[in-house]
Amino acid sequence: MRSWLIGICLVATSLAAHAQSRMSSAELSYQYNLQNEFLMSHKLASQASEYKLFLHFSLNSGNVKISDFEIKYDLRSDYMDERDVNSSIQIDSTNVIDVAFREFVFEVPFSVENNETIMVVDVYNIQKDKHYYYDIPLKVGETAPASFLVYQAEKDIPLFQKYLNKGIPVRFKKVFGQESNYQISGMENNRAFPAPPFDEAERGAPLRISIDTLFGANENEVFTFHNQGFYKISASNNTEAVVPLLVMDNFYPYYEDYSELVKPLVFLSTNEEFTSLRADSDTRAAFELFVQNTISSNEKMAKDFIKYYYRRLRKSAWLFSSDREGWKTDRGMVYQIFGDPIQVFRNENTELWVYSSAKGGKMRFVFELTIEDGLRKYKLLRGKRYREDWMTAVTQWRAGRIIE
């Protein structure tokens, strides 16, 4: 096993007491819990050493109010770097640029020194005396963020979603005031289904099929995507820094037809079952027959399966969509079958998810960070050790038992 893999496990188990000062030992599972008392997302833009953070903070529980929270940030050289005393900077009402019902958007300008690679946001619930930590890498690989962002068409705030439904207008806008023209290139979203965690076979990359020709847009011009796909947007004066954008159909993360509804069943079906599902000309009948014969003939159990399994697909869309649907990513696949991880730890290179194992003890999934198409992606380090737990969980789903 690689030394850095051993390192992250040691960090997760032996340095938990230092979570307040070191991000590598901060427990981050709340970020994947969509029932958490608050939800956060962000967008980052840069120009030379000047940065701007846009932070979307949503109160997600009726038991909390914005005055319950104190939000601060500091900049560090890496995940092992401890916070300097008195280095934290307050984010407060002076940073607010938009307010909706229990939602707040903060704009935070800051400067970065050469050795600073990560921003750590500390959200402190004063009433509970509890800290939540939110890590924001300041570069994608070696590339600083672009100096522009995708904005909503009718509000002067960035698009925070991990995907855009086609037909919804947006704008491309320089964050630091200068104007530019923009180039937009797209590829078809033809990504394959992820292999199970125990399948270590190498798979070839899918064909990169371009969408039409190169599009163009002017500064602040309202632009509408009419085709699904994965797009890369760049300013004409700097084509290296790109803003990636996944464009999905009007219904995503819901489903318009049964031909799409059967695809996520790949995790629960045998090869023969899945081939039959995809080949049947009446996909609705095939889907209903699969649920009735494989999951349960009991109407309530069948409805519960559909409700909970496809609700988790929607959660994966909100959490993990990147250049593909959220459930097609490695983290989305694990999340789909096992649900919210008990613990999550992260450093510059890896992310570790911890679950209870059906065999007793803990089950650990390690995802390795890769950079591709201007995106940070996490690739699961697969191994045969996952087979038993995976097959046990799949069997439970197929028996109509909901894993929550």
TrEMBL record:
It comes from the Bacteria. InterPro entries: GWxTD_dom (IPR030959). Keywords: Signal. It holds the Pfam family GWxTD_dom. Residues 1-19 form the signal peptide. Residues 229-398 form the GWxTD domain. Coiled coil: none annotated. This is GWxTD domain-containing protein. It comes from Roseivirga pacifica. The lineage of its organism: Bacteria, Pseudomonadati, Bacteroidota, Cytophagia, Cytophagales.
